Fold this sequence. Notes:
Blueprint: E1 6-12, H1 25-34, E2 38-43, E3 48-53, H2 58-73, E4 79-83, H3 84-97, E5 104-110, H4 116-123, E6 130-135, E7 138-143, H5 154-161, E8 164-168, H6 169-179
Antiparallel strand pairs: 1-3, 1-4, 2-3, 5-7, 5-8, 6-7
Amino acid sequence: MIARMATYVAFLRAINLGATRKFPKAAIVAATQAAGFADVETHINTGNVRLSTAMRSRARIETALEGAYRESQGFEVPTIVLSQAELGRVVDDAAELGEGHEGRHYVSLLKQEPDPEAARTLEARTTEEERVVVRGRAVHLLVRESYLDSMTTNATVERLLGVATNRNLTVLSAVRRKWC
């Protein structure tokens, strides 16, 4: 019996930042393929990877990728994996939450489902200048001007909810259009 392949999107955390965490797109593709994944493709050089696999456990996929990336590059690369449907929901939620919003929209993708109390604590950071909404494994940050001026950063998200990686809505929407 041949196992059916499913497509996932992996988001790599903290690569290509500074001189010591370089991970070029070609090396990402090679390491992902070496780990046994098929149909591998990347989108821009910020660690967005499409892959197909017969594995169905998100945790197993993340573990396999993190091991392959560590072996390839010599440093840890926390990896958050979403199914195509999960990515679609994140982008749909963003469209709903951003209706009428004039500023910028960022999303921190979480490795694990957040603790509900911790999620409420994070959402309580909402101010007139920035809105924080947790939906599943996605933390939406809507700011007026710049993410750099925001009081809620990916580091804040990680302190409260665990491992996360941040993307702007433009990138997530492009990845969805391209791969879902």
